[in-house]
Amino acid sequence: MQSKVKNGRLWIVAVIFHLCFVTAGAAHFSFRDVPVIGAALNMYGEISGANMSYGFFSPGIYGQLQALIDVYDTSGNKTTRALVKGENREADLRMNDIVDSFLEESEDKMQFQRTLAASLAGTVFATEPNAELVNVRIESFPAISRQAFLAGERADWKPAYSAKFAHKKRPQPEAK
Amino acid sequence: MRERFSRVGEKFENFFLAPASPLPLAVLRISLVLVLLLQAFLLRDSVVTFLSRSGILQGPIADTLRMQDTPQVGWIADWLAPFGVSEIQTLYAVCFAYVMSLLFLGLGFFTRVSAVTAWLLHWTLLTTGFSSIYGVDLYAHVFLFYLMVAPCGRALSLDAYFAKEPLAGRASSGARLALRVMQLHLCISYFASAVEKLQGEQWRTGEVIWRMFSLPFFAQFDMDWVAHWPSLLLLGAWSTILLEGLYFIFIWPNATRRLWLAGIVGLHLGIAVLMGLHLFGLIMCAFSLSVFAMPSEPSVALERSREDVTSTAPAASF
Fold first, then answer.
1. Domain encompassing residue A38
2. What does the pLDDT look like over A29-81, one tens digit per residue?
3. In this structure, is residue A173 part of a structural domain?
4. Is residue A23 in some structural domain?
5. Could you say which residues from 123 to 142 on chain A have a Cβ atom under 8 Å away from some Cβ of chain B?
6. Chain B within 8 Å of A168 (Cβ-Cβ)?
7. Which of B171, B173, B139 lies closest to B28, judged by CA?
8. What are the DSSP calls for B178-218, one per residue?
9. Hey, are the CB atoms on A96 and B217 less than 8 Å from each other?
10. Does residue A56 form part of some domain?
11. What part of B 265-304 touches A (C-beta under 8 Å)?
12. Judgement on whether residues A14 and A73 belong to the same structural domain of the protein
């Protein structure tokens, strides 16, 4: 026995409507600014995932960032750790996304970066009672072209951002 | 003229509504659940780091980087706080419920309810950890949404078993409609991806493949040697663009489907191995193989035997 869908034509219309949404999302069209129903359409896009765009690694690759955290303890000893630890690829991919958000354009980029760095430092203070000073460093690794590589040029990590945070309650140690 | 229109209309309707086996939907359901369970297992120690207010993103930055007006674990935590439930406890409870809903969905037990629950909880976790998500999460959100509506529990499920229906399920128009939406969604997404790639000069020259291999985060192997093989880079970039861009054409005819599926699976496995995007590669292979490689045409003989078993069962509806 094969069953037929009830109101089949209505479902087809709904499907076409939905696929138009998917196409609009793929074309980076936002319904947010559509008068009256914009918010509802936008929410539908969020709920269904129809607002998703698909420009993975487009238009190109320009480099990557890494976050390093220097922790100075009460004796002034320094330990450095990378936020992307290389132990769990799935976790690393997500951590890398957070580090990448340092590049995000925002109205007040400097304030945004400072707040993000403070958040990263906060996690260190919360888990390490001996931490007195935390230096959050963001480094960039610019991708070099194939031709430059063949000509002998090599890419290296370069400082892109740095912010220091001291524990409020304790005196600040001298960094070594 | 009118007759021609009517014939076209009939073909159009058949394309969307001709009864199809729910087997491809069931395979999609199970494979998606397996990938998401694997993901949950891999991230079991990172729950607090990525999702808690006391995790890697604290204070105002957490709200800035999270999606607005969408469900958050923090909302539930705020509701439960007066009862003495901490945010971390709420977070683990949500994650446990999510994993359970995935297990139920995978087994096809109370499939519709578990699909809705899995979708809602996945969305909640996705929006809570919005700053750390990537392609695999977004695609999973899309296909969990489809599984909520699709008759994916009509085959290979405990629901079918307890309803004394055959495990291969009964053909229905709902299954065809759901299958078509997913197939067309994949076609649109691959085409859009190819169009965006074509706009980048790095893709047109093959440079992007070199740069991908040269970045420490994506380089899984030492690929410096490939700099001496520009034709290989060009081939890699253009085969990606062509496989994606022409997917919507060559995935449909029987004559080219296997070739295109092999190409797409090869592409995603290549991405998984060479760039370390393992789950993304797996989930994309699962989508294409489920909705395009699995036979969806109902077998007449099988249907006859099903009629004997299910003659008293109510008709399936979408």
1. 8-48
2. 988 888 888 889 999 999 999 999 998 888 999 999 999 999 998 888 999 99
3. no
4. yes
5. 123, 126, 141
6. no
7. B139
8. HHHHHHHHHHHHHHHHHHHHHT-HHHHHTHHHHHHHHSTTT
9. yes
10. no
11. 276-279, 298, 303
12. no
